[in-house]
Design a protein that fits this description.
It is built from two helices and seven strands, in the order ααβββββββ. By secondary structure, the chain is of the alpha/beta class. The strands form two sheets. The protein has a four-stranded mixed beta sheet, with no helix packed on it. Strands 3-7-6 form a three-stranded mixed beta sheet.
């Protein structure tokens, strides 16, 4: 029960309910478990440009994206997270030195896609 509660607390924190303190949290164990996806070396399907004023970015689950900031830094990320964590601060996955501002990542899972 305690493990379940700790996991749920961490997931809720990472989904934006604790956004105010997100910078101070150590999410490294979630990162290592692949909860937010994985770094990629492949060809990106999309390039997403962010700046300090960017609020949210939306990406499809399993998409590979090149994330670029207005200072010229970039990184590739595969949004293949292992759980339902679908809303988290970009700075959680950004490499050291990448200015992600307060941008939130929203991962659209297949069940959330709208049909035509």
């Amino acid at each position: 029960m305690n493990v379940h509660r700790n996991f749920l607390t961490a997931v809720l924190f990472c989904t934006g309910l604790g956004v105010g303190a997100a910078g101070a949290a150590d999410n490294s164990w979630l990162f290592q478990k692949g909860f937010f996806g994985t770094p990629s070396q492949g060809k990106p399907e999309v390039t997403i440009k962010v700046s300090g004023a960017t609020g949210n970015i939306w990406v499809d689950h399993f998409a590979t994206a090149k994330i670029e900031n207005d200072k010229g830094a970039n990184f590739l990320w595969r949004f293949d997270g292992t759980t339902g964590v679908s809303n988290f601060p970009l700075k959680t996955i950004a490499p050291r030195g990448f200015d992600a501002g307060s941008t939130q990542v929203i991962v659209m899972h297949p069940s959330q896609h709208l049909s035509p």
